[in-house]
Amino acid sequence: MRMVGGLLLVLVGCATPGRLPSAPDARPHLGDEWFAWRAGTLGLSVEETRARDASLPAGEEGRVPPDGTLDEHTAAEAALLWQQECARCHGSTGAPPPVEPGRTPPRAWGGMGVRMGFLFGGDKMRAGIYRAIAQGKGDMAAWGDTLSREQIWALVRHIERF
User: Fold this and answer.
1) Where do the domains of the chain lie, and which CATH numbers do they carry?
2) Minimal CA–CA distance to 159: which of 107, 110, 116?
């Protein structure tokens, strides 16, 4: 709260939290390393963290994690995953680099069609992207055995923000 010219201003939720700082050599947490790291960020045991992750939707149509599940830690993790894994094919800004002749180009993110898909498709689109990441699609490898459900949902949110 702040007094300005006799008016009481209450600023709530006006600023967006910044990304967590990451070292230039930072690497995403994969497999069991994710659960140990995430347990520390949540103040839970590794077992509780695994159970929490298992309770998240696994790409069922129209189902997404409850509000408050993803936080600044998962946002930073998604940014690392995108830059170090996804950007190879999809580009760092969602615009894929040219592909070899005869290969199917990866999906471009950040265009008007994708934005409209999120706007009109909503949770159905989010669940579809989750499934594509987890199960693979076309030339894209499946990441469901390497990433946690929470990491995949964080990537979906990251893609939505392009």
Assistant:
1) 29-95+107-160 (1.10.760.10)
2) 110
